[in-house]
Amino acid sequence: MSExxxxxxxxxxxxxxxxxxxxxxxxxxLMCVGCPVAAFHTLADAxxxxxxxxTELLRTLDRRLESAVRPPS
Length: 73
What we know:
By secondary structure, the chain is mostly helical.
């Protein structure tokens, strides 16, 4: 990933910049995909709305996006 995710990262930016994130969001139970407020909500907003720990959400998304970019060894 070019820029690390932060609490202020906009959900739509993650989804637009990383198509593999769609699957990660769905697997995490975050129905941000297709949500009209994804263009305005930050990852901090999504964590709060879905009652998730923000730090763990960021770690999980970072790991999943990193593994999608890196080919399996």
